[in-house]
Design brief:
Elements: H1 2-22, E1 25-36, E2 45-55, E3 60-70, E4 77-88, E5 95-109, E6 115-130, E7 135-148, E8 156-159, E9 165-168, E10 176-188
């Protein structure tokens, strides 16, 4: 029994460097810009992201990303969640090229209380720098397609203090193709 515990201790100490290098979980934040094809002549939207990535093998991981888009009109925001499959293409030193594909959901809200739900699929490529200590810095480019579940051009009532009604047609999240770019930083542990 004592020999088994000594062997286990030696094996655990020998495995520590490989466990430290594995670092299967990455968490981080990012900023970027996104623009729909339907709004190509207009202004792009600013984005903020948080993400968590779990590696299953050396080259395969899943990533959950939560994102907030600030649309350039009417104090409107979009919140989205995306689940990505991430594939590492190898590495050269500390640089890691990645490919990913994902799907998710969107929720649009504007200052007047108008809400729209939608879904999207996207894919893209990224280049990450991974430092020995666990710091990860990267940049990615994405192309995607979005569908809207609700009628986005419906006229909406707006109530003011005098209980009178005004009508407006909200500018909303656009269905169709979109493109985005971001930079991000994270920590592997």
């Amino acid at each position: 029994m004592r020999l088994a515990s000594v062997a286990f201790t030696i094996a655990a100490i020998a495995a520590l460097p490989s466990l430290a290098d594995a670092r299967p979980f990455t968490a981080g934040v990012g900023i970027g810009r996104s623009q729909s094809k339907a709004d190509a002549e207009g202004e792009a939207s600013d984005t903020l992201q948080v993400f968590g990535r779990l590696s299953f093998t050396k080259r395969l991981a899943v990533q959950l990303e939560l994102q907030k888009l600030e649309l350039p009109y009417d104090a409107a925001t979009v919140r989205s969640g995306t689940l990505h499959l991430v594939v590492e293409l190898g590495h050269r030193g500390h640089l890691f090229p990645l490919l990913f594909a994902g799907f998710g959901g969107d929720k649009f809200n504007d200052a007047y209380g108008y809400e729209i739900s939608g879904s999207h699929t996207e894919g893209g490529a990224a280049l990450e720098y991974r430092a020995d200590g666990g710091l990860t810095i990267g940049a990615d480019l994405r192309l995607g397609g979005r569908s809207i579940d609700d009628d986005q051009y419906k006229i909406q009532p707006v109530y003011n203090d005098n209980s009178s009604i005004a009508l407006y047609a909200p500018e909303t999240l656009q269905p169709g193709e979109y493109r985005s770019a971001r930079i991000y930083a994270g920590v592997r542990f």
